[in-house]
C-alpha cells in the first residue's frame, strides 16, 4: 500500500514510522524543509534506540528507513492509496490542502485527517468526492500508542470506513470507531483533565509540579496534565481546546484557560521548544 502523509511534525513523522514499519511505502510531505530534515533525523535516532534495546536489528532499521521518502511537493503523493493529513489544526488551511490534494490522487484514494477536534464533515465538504474522507486519529507518540480513533463523517461511505478500519488494524493498532462530534472520545474526556488542572493552578491552590505529582502518585496517571500538555505542544493543545469549546456552543465545561493561551503565545510550547510548564 502507498501512503501519503501531509505534515512531518510530531504526529506525521510518527504515523510515517508506523506505516513504514507495517510495510507500506510512505511519502512524507511538508512545506517546511527543516521539519522534513528533523523528521528524518528523529527517525534515525528512534530506530538506533530500538536497536540498542534489542527490539530491531540493523536490517530492520534500513528496511523501515528505505520505505520513507521525504518530499516537498504535494504532487508526489499522487500514487497514494491512503493519505493522512497531520498539519496545523486550522479548518481553512486543512480544507485548502484537501481540495488541492484531490486533484492529484486517484478516485480510489482514501483522504483522511488526523485532526483532534475539527469536524470531519466540514473537512470532507472541501472534496469533490466527500464520501472518501474520514478521520483517522492517532495519539502521541503514534508508534507507541495502541489506540486509533476512526471517525466517519456523515458523508463517508461504508466501504471507506471498513477499508480504513482494516488498514489501521493491519498496522497493529486498536481501532475505536467514534462519532464525528467535537474531540471525538479521548479529546473530549481529556479537555476537562487539562482545564481543571489549569484552573487549580490559576486559583493558586497548587503549582504545576504538585498537580502533576498528585495525579501520578495518587491518581495513577502515567503523566500529569502539565507534563502531558508539554508533551503534546501548548500551541496544538490550546488550539484544540479553543476549537472544542466553540464547537460545543461555548459550553463552560470546555472553557480554555488564559495560562495556556499565554504559554502558546509566548512560544513556551513544551518539549518541542525546550520550554513549557517545565524546562527541557
Ligand atoms: N500533538 C499531538 O499530541 C496530537 C495528537 C493527535 C492529533 N494531533 C493533530 O495532528 C495534527 C498535527 O499536529 P502536530 O502536533 O503533529 O503538529 P506539528 O506542529 O508538530 O506539525 C505540523 C506540521 O505541519 C506542517 N504544515 C503546516 N501547514 C502545512 C501545509 N499547509 N502543508 C504541509 N505541511 C504543513 C508544519 O510545517 C509542521 O511540520 C493536528 O491536526 C493536531 O490536532 C496532534
Describe the fold and architecture.
With 280 residues, this protein is of the alpha/beta class. It has helices at 10-21, 33-52, 58-67, 91-104, 120-124, 158-170, 186-202, 208-218, 225-232, 234-247, 258-266; strands spanning 2-6, 25-29, 68-71, 82-85, 110-113, 133-138, 147-152, 174-177. The protein folds into 2 domains: 2-177, Rossmann fold (3-Layer(aba) Sandwich), CATH 3.40.50; 188-273, Orthogonal Bundle (N-(1-d-carboxylethyl)-l-norvaline Dehydrogenase, domain 2). The chain has 11 helices and 8 strands. It binds nicotinamide-adenine-dinucleotide.
- Low-pLDDT runs of 5+ residues are none
Strand content: 5-15%
Secondary-structure-based class equals alpha/beta
Secondary structure tally, helices? 11
Average pLDDT confidence is: 97
**What's the main sheet like?**
8 strands, mixed
Report how far the terminal alpha carbons are from each other. 38 Å
Rg from Cα: 19 Å
Order of helices and strands: EHEHHEEHEHEEHEHHHHH
Question: What is the annotated CATH architecture of the largest domain?
Answer: 3-Layer(aba) Sandwich
Strand order of the largest sheet: 3-2-1-4-5-6-7-8
CA-based shape: globular
Question: Helicity level, as a percent range?
Answer: 40-55%
Quickly describe the structure:
This protein has helices spanning 10-21, 33-52, 58-67, 91-104, 120-124, 158-170, 186-202, 208-218, 225-232, 234-247, 258-266, and strands at 2-6, 25-29, 68-71, 82-85, 110-113, 133-138, 147-152, 174-177. By secondary structure, it is α/β, with parallel strands linked by helices. An eight-stranded mixed beta sheet has the order 3-2-1-4-5-6-7-8, sandwiched between helices.
Amino acid at each position: 500500500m502507498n501512503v501519503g502523509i501531509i505534515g512531518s511534525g510530531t504526529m506525521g513523522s510518527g504515523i510515517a514510522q508506523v506505516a513504514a514499519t507495517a510495510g507500506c511505502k510512505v511519502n512524507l510531505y511538508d512545506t517546511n524543509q527543516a521539519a522534513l530534515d528533523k523528521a528524518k533525523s528523529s527517525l534515525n535516532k528512534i530506530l538506533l534506540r530500538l536497536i540498542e534495546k534489542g527490539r530491531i536489528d540493523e536490517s530492520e532499521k534500513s528496511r523501515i528507513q528505505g520505505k520513507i521518502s521525504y518530499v516537498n511537493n504535494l504532487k508526489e503523493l499522487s500514487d497514494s492509496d491512503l493519505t493522512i493529513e497531520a498539519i496545523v489544526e486550522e479548518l481553512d488551511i486543512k480544507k485548502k490542502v484537501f481540495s488541492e490534494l484531490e486533484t492529484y490522487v486517484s478516485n480510489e484514494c482514501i483522504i483522511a485527517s488526523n485532526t483532534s477536534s475539527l469536524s470531519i464533515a466540514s473537512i470532507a465538504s472541501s472534496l469533490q468526492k466527500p464520501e472518501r474522507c474520514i478521520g483517522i486519529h492517532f495519539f502521541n507518540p503514534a508508534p507507541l500508542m495502541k489506540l486509533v480513533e476512526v471517525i466517519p463523517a456523515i458523508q463517508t461511505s461504508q466501504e471507506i470506513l471498513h477499508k480504513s478500519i482494516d488498514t489501521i488494524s493491519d498496522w497493529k493498532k486498536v481501532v475505536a470507531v467514534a462519532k464525528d462530534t467535537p474531540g471525538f472520545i479521548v479529546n473530549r474526556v481529556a479537555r476537562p483533565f487539562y482545564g481543571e488542572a489549569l484552573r487549580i493552578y490559576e486559583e493558586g491552590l497548587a503549582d504545576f509540579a504538585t498537580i502533576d505529582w498528585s495525579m501520578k502518585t495518587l491518581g495513577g496517571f502515567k503523566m500529569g496534565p502539565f507534563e502531558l500538555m508539554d508533551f503534546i505542544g501548548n500551541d496544538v493543545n490550546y488550539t484544540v481546546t479553543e476549537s472544542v469549546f466553540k464547537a460545543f456552543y461555548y459550553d463552560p465545561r470546555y472553557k480554555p484557560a488564559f495560562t495556556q493561551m499565554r504559554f502558546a503565545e509566548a512560544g513556551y510550547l513544551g518539549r518541542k521548544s525546550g520550554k513549557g510548564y517545565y524546562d527541557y
